[in-house]
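User: Reviewer 2 asked us to show a designed sequence for the structure in our supplementary figure. I'm pasting the structure tokens here. Could you produce the per-position amino acids so we can include them in the response letter?
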């Protein structure tokens, strides 16, 4: 069977189906949504985001498709991919001060901007700032 694949401007495979509830204004619906609905056994709930496990948006194999319950879940999956690539552990996070990836148990999480850092790195940074302020005052 020869199937001609249509790509949209973002590089996704799409299928023409104007009646689909998730079709875009041009009548096309992304193939990964159709695959996710098959995996899900029905329409996706509102706010659901379809994620490609291997980050290849043209790989719509059902085992490459993950249905995220919302945007935050999707962001987390991408963060885990980044952590795994950089540190070999998906649960590691990067210290915003020394740049090293570490176990989350060793890191402090800043709730304001979701950044992580070592307590020691933060203490060193505070000392460095204090020293700089003193020098500037002299
Ligand atoms: Zn994704
Ligand atoms: Zn650090």
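Assistant: Here is a per-position design you can include in the supplement:
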């Amino acid at each position: 069977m020869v199937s001609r694949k249509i790509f949209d401007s973002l590089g996704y495979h799409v299928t023409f189906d104007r009646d689909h509830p998730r079709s875009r204004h041009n009548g096309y619906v992304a193939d990964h949504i159709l695959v996710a609905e098959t995996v899900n056994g029905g329409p996706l709930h509102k706010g659901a985001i379809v994620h490609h496990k291997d980050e290849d948006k043209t790989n719509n194999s059902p085992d490459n498709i993950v249905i995220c319950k919302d945007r935050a879940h999707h962001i987390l999956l991408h963060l885990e991919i980044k952590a795994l690539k950089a540190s070999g552990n998906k649960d590691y996070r990067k210290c915003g001060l020394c740049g090293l990836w570490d176990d989350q148990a060793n890191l402090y999480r800043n709730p304001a901007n979701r950044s992580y850092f070592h307590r020691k790195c933060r203490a060193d940074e505070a000392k460095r700032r204090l020293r700089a302020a003193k020098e500037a005052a002299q």
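For the response letter, you might also mention the following. The helical segments are 31-40, 71-87, 119-137. The chain has two domains: 6-71, 92-137.
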